Amino acid sequence: MIDIVIKNGNIVSPERILRGSICIKDGKISEILSDGEERQAKQVIDASGKYVFPGFIDTHAHLNEPGYEWREDYEHGTAAAAAGGFTTVIDMPIQNEPALVDEKSFDNKISSVKDSAYIDYALWGGMIPENIEDLKGQNDKGCVAFKSFVSPTAPGFSPLNYGQVYEAMKVVKEFGGRAGFHCEDFAMINWLESKMKKDGKTDWRGYLESRPVAAEMVATVAVIELAKSTGCKTHICHVSSPDVAQKIKEAQKEGYDITAETCPHYLMMTKEDLINNGALYKCAPPLRSREDMEKLWDYVIDGTFSGIGSDHSPATYDEKYVEIDGKPIKNAFDPWGGMSGLQTVVQSVFYEGCIKRNISPVILADVMSKKAAKAFGLYGRKGDIKPGFDADIVILDPDKEWEITSDSLYYLNKISSFIGRKGKGMPTMTMVRGNIIAKDGQIVGKKGYGRLVTKVYAD
User: Fold this and answer.
1) How do 17-25 and 2-12 pair as beta strands?
2) How many helices (DSSP H) and strands (DSSP E) are in the chain?
3) Would you call 354 exposed, middle or buried from its count of C-beta atoms within 10 A (0-12, 13-18, 19+)?
4) How far apart are CA 360 and CA 363, in angstroms?
5) Cis link prior to 285 (omega < 30° from 0)?
6) Is 13 helix (H, G, I), strand (E, B) or coil?
7) In angstroms, rounded to a whole number, what is the distance separating the alpha carbons of residues 67 and 112?
8) What are the start-end ranges of the H helices in 69-141?
9) Does residue 459 register a pLDDT over 60?
10) Taking the C-alpha atoms of 265, 143, 445 and 436 in order, what is their torsion angle to the nearest 10 degrees?
11) Distance CA 311, CA 152 (A)
């Protein structure tokens, strides 16, 4: 007898929607049944009228443990992810102390978080000037990709110049890894930020002028050309501009293994939100124009992106509005530059895409599950509803209305630019490896159930 059958659901694969049932045994999907087929099971879940998605993967989150747990920790961050419909989160190496840049810090990370996660997690390794020759050690430990900046970044995590990017890509290519980049040109941003401050333009318009699309474009084109030259698999993080996405699409069409992600805030918010509402909307790259926002959806639809990552980068209220690092916040350049959105990605993207823009749910399964899993070497275990895959399942009620409130958020710091948004289409159950972790927005699973996930393949 099988353990669980999820019956009567609209099963959303990355290729089609099939009415039928999913059979689960020993934490794996054992069989997909067509409508009308029956199996005996210990537990039956009726998904009538609902979509049944493969578990969604957050390709880009900052959970801040160890070292900055007062911003976010694994207990709160993975609980938020589960409540929102993510079954796997890929955690960034920065805003940790120590940053994950070597084998010792990898072990320290795992020791710190292994008993706290509600859902499965994978780890980005760090790629900085000091560790280029030692990246393979992180890969062998289990890192699924390697993050670097070609822009200003956090203390203790130095950016790479383009010569160092070239050398790092050659190293990563040798062991079949994927190099990932925050693409905003360092020199342009440094110059423009200095100029804005010198000219007294320290409001939100000044901040936006200091990080133009041109800076994102220059860095992305440079990274793409270096990837072409070295043959290194490459991932472009948090793409904010459709013009930048077009460059990535062109490289993909030429046959290069260059993947990319965007974020929900770039698909539903604009620079006017930042200008009118302030620090909660500050991120980097910054929010763009309404026209850019609408055009960016085209690249979700056509499959350019392999993930819609939250870029969850939480902060305390004080870091947004009072002081940061002991210094009072006086202008737009001072507040913490990250947005909290981990829990609200799936419902927001479903509403904005499938409800408002009539995009097929198949697109979300493809981009946020299958392509995300493939980009980071997890496909075969994660990212699809097929026999043999982990039974990572998200049941979503397309008719359930919602409003995001601070009380509904599991974050340690319950502040977010998504608070107050309303919509329709809500995850009602999140299952990881056959276990129900969240139901109707409440955590019902066990802390510590989540485990480290490493690459299935490294071709």
Assistant:
1) antiparallel
2) 15, 18
3) buried
4) 6
5) yes
6) coil
7) 10
8) 74-84, 103-113, 135-141
9) no
10) 80
11) 17
H or E stretch covering 272: helix 271-277
* Residue 457: per-residue pLDDT: 60
Pairing of strands 86-91, 120-126: parallel
CA gap 342, 138 in Å, rounded: 26
Sequence-ordered strand ranges (E) for 142-194: 145-149, 178-182
- pLDDT tens-digit readout, 212-231: 999 999 999 999 999 999 99
d(CA 373, CA 368): 8
What is the residue whose two structure tokens read 């978080």? 113
Closest listed residue to residue 182, CA positions, set 214, 209, 159: 159
24 token code pair? 């689960």
Structure tokens at 89: 């989160």
Cα separation, 439 vs 98, whole angstroms: 35
**Contact status, residue 243 vs residue 266, Cβ threshold 8 Å:** no
Tokens read off for 307 = 């993930």
